[in-house]
Amino acid sequence: MFDAPAAEVSRYAASPMGRLEPLDDGRRCVLVGATSDPAIDAGEWLAAMPIPFWVEGGIELREAVAAVAARLTDALGPSVG
After folding, report:
1. What is the mean pLDDT of residues 33-56?
2. Where would you tag: which of 5, 53, 57, 66 has the fewest CB atoms within 10 A of its CB?
3. CB-side exposure of 43: number of CA atoms within 13 Å?
């Protein structure tokens, strides 16, 4: 689910990702679709999204997003101070 209208999200969502459906009178939207490669969807497409989003379903995609988040967190290195 994206915290933005479908028209805004469509600028960043590649068509192979699925179709955008409006929610909440168009204020938010959800991306509905199936993926053949959750790691690419998470690491290349969703990680580059400048719009807040939530992964609500699909264990494989949830795990792929968690892996990207962990990798980026690790890239910060040890805390300073």
Report:
1. 89
2. 57
3. 12
Say if residue 42 is exposed, middle or buried (CB neighbours under 10 Å; 0-12, 13-18, 19+): buried
CA angle 6, 32, 54 (to 5 degrees): 75
Contacts of 6 (CB under 8 A, 6+ apart): 20, 21, 22, 26, 29
* pTM of the predicted protein model: 0.83
Q: How far apart are CA 15 and CA 44, in angstroms?
A: 14
Q: Phi first, then psi: give them for residue 7, nearest 5 degrees.
A: -60, -35
Write out the E strands in 15-77: 19-23, 28-32
